[in-house]
Design brief:
- With 246 residues, this protein is mainly α.
- It has one domain.
- Helix content is 74%, strand content 0%.
C-alpha cells in the first residue's frame, strides 16, 4: 500500500519525467519506471508505468499530431504484434535484476557509430524490426527508448517529427504492456488506482512544458543531450541490477 507521501512524490515525478520526455521523446519513462520499481512488484510497476506513459505520450502525440508519420507507425505496429505474440506464447515473466541490467545496457545503443548500424525507421523493413525489438523490450523490461531511438535519430526527420512519431509509437507499445501485465495490476488497491488516475493531469502538464522547451532546442543539442541523459540513467540501472545479483 502506497503512503500519501509516496503518492505525492509520484505525482511530482510524473510531472518532471513527462517534461523530460516532452523535450527528448524518451528518458522520462526510464526514470519513472525506476521509481515505481522501488515501490511496487516488477510486473505491477511495468503496468502502472505503462498506464501513466499512455497519458504522457498520448498528450505529446496529440500536441505534435501534425508531425506524426503514420506510414512508419503502421510498419512498427506489425513488428510489435510479432513480439507480443512470441512473449505471450512463452509465458514470459519479468525478473527485477534482469530488468535493471537490461535497461542499464540499452544506452550502449545510442553510442554505436552511425556507420555500424544504418537503421532508418522510414524504411519499411527497418520499421518492422524497430517494432519487434522496441516493442518486445518494452513488454519484457518496461522501456525501450534507446532501442527505438537508434531507428529515428539517424533519419532525415527533424526533431519534431521524431518526437511526434515516437510518442505515437509509445502510446501503442505502452497500451500493449498494460494488457500484457493486466493480472499484475490486481494487487493495487482502489486508493492506489486513484493515485494513478491523479497522475493524468500532471503527465499532461509536464508534456506541455516539455513541448514548449522542445520548440526552443536546436536539432544538434537535441541529439547530443539525448545520448548523455540516457547514458547517465543507464549507469544507475546497471549498478542497481548488478547489486541485486551480487
Amino acid at each position: 500500500m502506497l503512503s500519501l507521501g509516496a503518492v505525492l512524490a509520484l505525482l511530482g515525478a510524473v510531472f518532471l519525467t513527462s517534461t523530460l520526455s516532452g523535450v527528448f521523446g524518451m528518458a522520462g519513462g526510464l526514470i519513472l519506471l525506476g521509481i515505481l520499481l522501488a515501490l511496487l512488484p516488477v510486473g505491477t510497476a511495468i503496468a502502472v508505468q505503462g498506464a501513466i506513459q499512455i497519458i504522457a505520450n498520448g498528450s505529446r502525440a496529440w500536441l505534435s499530431r501534425a508531425f506524426i508519420d503514420w506510414r512508419i507507425m503502421g510498419w512498427i505496429t506489425l513488428g510489435l504484434l510479432v513480439s507480443a505474440t512470441i512473449l505471450f506464447i512463452v509465458r514470459y515473466t519479468p525478473d527485477l535484476a534482469a530488468v535493471c541490467i537490461a535497461i542499464g545496457l540499452l544506452p550502449i545503443l545510442v553510442w554505436i557509430p552511425a556507420d555500424w548500424l544504418r537503421l532508418d525507421a522510414s524504411k519499411p523493413h527497418h520499421a518492422v524490426l524497430c517494432g519487434m525489438l522496441g516493442g518486445g523490450l518494452n513488454l519484457a523490461v518496461g522501456v525501450s527508448g534507446p532501442t527505438v531511438d537508434i531507428f529515428f535519430i539517424r533519419t532525415a526527420m527533424d526533431r519534431r517529427r521524431i518526437v511526434a512519431t515516437k510518442a505515437a509509437v509509445q502510446v501503442l507499445s505502452h497500451g500493449a504492456k498494460v494488457v500484457f501485465y493486466w493480472n499484475a495490476t490486481m494487487v493495487l488497491s482502489a486508493g492506489e488506482w486513484l493515485g494513478v488516475a491523479l497522475a493524468a493531469p500532471f503527465a499532461v502538464a509536464g508534456t506541455s512544458a516539455g513541448y514548449w522547451i522542445l520548440q526552443r532546442v536546436t536539432d544538434a543539442n537535441f541529439r547530443s543531450w539525448t545520448r548523455w541523459i540516457v547514458s547517465a540513467i543507464g549507469i544507475f540501472y546497471l549498478a542497481r541490477g548488478l547489486s541485486l545479483v551480487l
